[in-house]
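DATA SHEET
Item: assembly model
Revision: 1
Owner: S.N.
Input lines:
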Amino acid sequence: MISRLNFRSGVPVYRQIVEQVKAAAAGGTLRDGDPLPSVRALAEELRINRNTAAKAYAELEAEGVIETRAGKGCFLKTGAPSPLRRSVRAERLAEAVDSVIVQAHHLQISPGELTDLLAQRLQYFQQQQADRPE
Amino acid sequence: MKSSPVIDIQNLVYRYDRREAVDGLSLQVQPGQCHGLFGRNGAGKTTTIKCLLNLLRPQSGSVSVFGLSPGRHEAAVKERLAYVPDSVAYYPWMTVRDALDYQASFRRHWNRQIETELLDRFHLDPKLATTALSKGQRTQVALIGAVCPEPELLVLDEPTSGLDPLVRREFIQTVIGAYQDAAPGERTVLVSTHLISEFEGLIDRFTIVDHGKDILTANADDARSRYRRLRAEFGQDAPDADTVSGARTLRREGRWLELMVNGEAESVIAWLQGAKALRVESEALALEDIFMAAVGTKGGLP
């Protein structure tokens, strides 16, 4: 689920976990209802503090990506409707898209190339989802 | 932070003869945190810890643990904490079982379940004589003995020194994980080390100590996002950056200049570009890099 943490990325460790779980969900490695490791198991596997693991799970839960079932642990809930309004979700995504556009400009990637790349990557994620055995 | 600190040290001074071991050190550890005390050998870490345990009396400054003075309320303080020194000795006639029972006899509470679980995890046979234990196994037994009473504070002094690098990381992680799992938020750890990279992921907050003084206290994530290393290449000899605010020179050699910045990367990058740098690379730093720069750079951290 989590490939590795990078302590030289400047990105808070809990954030890296949040992003990797979300990427695993988007790529189909994790599916709706799949269990996540316990806070302690995750902390041990990644050699991190349990506070950090717990913070990552709390954030994922607040964002509606996972849910905690009493006594059973955490599960992915991609199928559930987002707790955020559509306009809020669109606004959040627009921020991320803007930063990609800015980066593309500085890397001298033309708008045409960028839209092609976006289409390619979308297809890649969809393929990953489709390829995962039931 | 809202709650009162578990450990509160203010301007601690402790001198051995004329050599100053701790020279005006201040440190606060918040409940539920895993706090790293980072310093080179001889920086004053062990002396500081000994003052917490009333093994040494502060010559000036104040030390409080759970809001109590370790000197005046020694029993009340020690009952609520466990301490693992850097080298552990057992009575030679004792087995692992005996050694743990002996430690348990001093405690009001002892969690047998954690004991069994950890002995099992470490493949430690309770019937083994303590004289037959390797250095790593002795530390494992000491750590098990420290977490079974489920104290509010765990104090570890260089727990991995002298151990095989391949085995040392995992079991510290395992023990701290087991300890903090039952009541997160109430289980506090203070761990001293000079091997920062081994504790990189375990630390919530840390204090770097050098020559008996605290020179930086920060949250691990904050420090990792604030401190960056900039490496610039120039067409001619690299310029002198000593007067650039917010930057500290790590290395200046020929056409290369390596700087460390503290949250002001943009303005320093702009300065480098103004000085005609051909290219500038920027890299976030891990705790170990920050530590090395803090204790190894002239002028300290930016």
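QC remark: Chain A touches chain B through 21 residues (CB under 8 Å).
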